[in-house]
Design goal:
single chain; about 400 residues; alpha+beta; two-stranded antiparallel ribbon
Length: about 400
């Protein structure tokens, strides 16, 4: 009687695993992570895009281009398809063996490594379990040689060892591995520089869009320089791998073309937006700006300043403009001086009139001479205590009248 745990068991023995559980690498985890991040951001943007009512085209274009360029930089940094070669071969599986294997071999050169794949085609093969994906690093100058020796110790198939041996040669003008490594170093430096400019571009698109367009142009130029530099640093003698009558010819992979396309689009878009900003200032705008559609929005501030400037211009045009010359300036100066002198003259005339009225009143009533004399003395002392600007010096004839009092 069989129970719950009797599957794949024979005669009461343990479960028999009659196949090898090892599988080849089917995907790059790093690339999948970056693609998932940028795809999630773009899908989130597409979800909220129908709710955008203003600046729809510019916002969609800026976000799409930014995410595309950022994903391109990071994916190509860690990708393995800058220079690729594939072929169908019939070769021995082990060295010094007469057994032939029909398989598909691929060589994928990255910036800091090379991937070699070998997969049985399934036609007239003694086995179909051949499925390899091996990676050889060359971060250091001697790392490729160490990886090749480890592969020989592990007993990898003969076609993989044959291809890896081409990249370990460093003499007689056959230093393909060293030249690929130099091209990869240059591309890594330029791509990280492009990534830093890309971050600044996103910040400027939020704060000052016209500066973001300039940085977009710079980022596109750096990406194009990356592609051109990698092309120029490739081996002068093209690498051609020969495996028992079959040849592997290398060509540019999707990483190279992706960088070239992203750089061209970024440079073209940046130039167009910069020219439009020069011809029509403050015309490029997105909803991603910091103060968009608020009282501090740059468009609202610009319109407000233009309205005030127009009002000032109308008020100034309503007034008659007088020609201003040297004579006019002199007359204005003299008129200001006469205005300053008029208050002093008024004060002095008022004091003189007071003295005259007092004198007339004293002569009309001679029996009150003592009282008027005391009043006149108080008026004289009060006039002495006045500040300089209000003090009035009486004339000589008035002094005689005072002494007569």
């Amino acid at each position: 009687m069989k129970g719950w745990f009797d599957a794949f068991r024979y005669d009461g023995g343990p479960t028999l695993y009659s196949f090898n559980n090892r599988t080849a690498v089917t995907g790059d985890v790093t690339l999948i992570t970056f693609l998932t991040i940028f795809s999630t951001l773009y899908v989130a943007f597409l979800i909220i895009f129908p709710g955008i009512r203003k600046e729809r085209f510019t916002t969609f274009f800026a976000v799409t281009l930014s995410l595309f360029v950022g994903a391109t930089i990071l994916v190509t940094l860690f990708g393995s398809a800058w220079h690729v070669a594939t072929a169908s071969i019939i070769s021995t599986y082990r060295a010094f063996s007469t057994e032939k294997v029909s398989s598909n071999i691929g060589v994928y050169v990255g910036l800091r490594h090379v991937n070699i794949t070998l997969q049985a085609s399934g036609n007239h093969n003694w086995t179909s379990d051949i499925d390899f994906n091996e990676q050889f690093l060359w971060i250091n100058s001697d790392q490729m040689g160490d990886s090749f020796r480890e592969a020989m110790i592990r007993g990898l198939p003969f076609p993989i060892l044959t291809v890896a041996e081409y990249f370990t040669m460093g003499q007689e003008g056959l230093s393909w591995g060293g030249q690929y490594r130099a091209a990869g170093y240059y591309a890594i430096i330029m791509l990280w520089t492009s990534f830093s400019v890309w971050i600044l571009m996103n910040l400027m698109l939020i704060v000052v869009p016209r500066y973001g367009a300039v940085l977009m142009t710079t980022c596109g130029f750096l990406l194009l320089a990356t592609a051109c530099g990698y092309f120029g640093l490739l081996p002068e003698t093209p690498l051609v791998v020969h495996i028992e009558g079959s040849t592997l010819h290398f060509s540019f992979g999707w990483c190279y073309w992706l960088v070239l396309i992203a750089g061209s689009i970024c440079l073209l878009a940046g130039v167009i937006i910069t020219v439009l900003e020069i011809i029509f200032p403050h015309s490029f705008s997105t909803i991603l700006e910091v103060d968009y559609d608020t009282p501090y929005d740059r468009h609202i501030i610009i319109e407000d300043s233009r309205g005030r400037r127009f009002q000032k211009k109308r008020s100034s045009n309503s007034k008659l403009e007088e020609p201003v010359g040297i004579g006019t300036k002199i007359l204005r100066r003299l008129s200001s001086k006469t205005r300053e002198e008029k208050p002093n003259d008024l004060i002095s005339n008022s004091h003189i009139q007071n003295f005259e009225l007092g004198a007339k009143s004293n002569w009309s009533y001679p029996h009150n001479q003592d009282i008027h004399r005391s009043i006149s003395q108080e008026s004289i002392t009060s006039s002495r205590n006045l500040p300089t600007i209000h003090r009035v010096i009486p004339r000589p004839d008035k002094l005689q009248e005072v002494s007569m009092w």
